[in-house]
Amino acid sequence: MSKKKKRREKKSPPPPITQGEKEATDRGTNIDKLLAQLSSLADNSRSFITGKSEDDEFDAIWKADIEALEQAISIISALQDEGIRDPEQVHDLIADYNAIADERRELYCKYEQPSLTISVCGQDFCLECRNPIRYQPRHCPRCGKRLNNEINPKRRKP
Ligand SMILES: [Zn+2]
């Protein structure tokens, strides 16, 4: 059996959306409607499960539908709890998060991951900005790059 034989009974088409409903949707209550609709679909699927052994195959299909709907409901509910109202907000939020994470990674590399200084004719220079370095500071006084003086014992401050 490859296709479901039982389908939801056709309901009469929904009434046209009123101005009030449209405004409610514009305000973002469409997530509540969506969750209610998904719950209703899950309930509907549940009503087709007979539990009879001759319906095992059909029951398995309905159970898979219910499981998928319940997962979708829990994902959408979690997004709603975080104040998400539409897919665009999800994209915005993730884009913001990634931008902040990238920025943080850059800051970490610059201020926390030490790099060696280069030495030319006995003068040390910051690899990042080529600023001359004296007295082995923890960070380059010009660009802030973390410097590693620990692995240059010769050049350690006397
Ligand atoms: Zn520097």
The chain-level structural class is mainly alpha
Give a quick account of the main beta sheet: strands, pairing sense, barrel closure.
3 strands, antiparallel
What is the terminal-to-terminal distance?
A: 83 Å
| Coarse shape | elongated
Into which percentage range does the β-strand content fall? 5-15%
Which range best describes the helical content: under 10%, 10-25%, 25-40%, 40-55%, 55-70% or over 70%?
A: 40-55%
**What is the helix tally?**
3
Radius of gyration: 31 Å
What ligands does this structure carry?
A: zinc ion
Model description:
With 158 residues, this protein is mostly helical. The chain folds into 2 domains: 20-102; 114-158, no CATH class. It has 3 helices and 3 strands, in the order αααβββ. It has helices at residues 19-47, 56-81, 87-111, and strands at residues 118-120, 123-125, 132-133. A 3-stranded antiparallel β-sheet has the order 1-2-3, with no helix packed on it. The longest helix has 29 residues, at 19-47. The termini are far apart. The relative contact order is 0.08. The mean pLDDT is 83. The structure holds zinc ion. Zinc ion binds at residues 126, 128-129, 131, 140, 142-143, 145. Residues 126, 128-129, 131, 140, 142-143, 145 line the site of zinc ion (ZN).
Structure in a nutshell:
This protein has 158 residues and is mostly helical. The chain contains 3 helices and 3 strands; from the N terminus they run H-H-H-E-E-E.
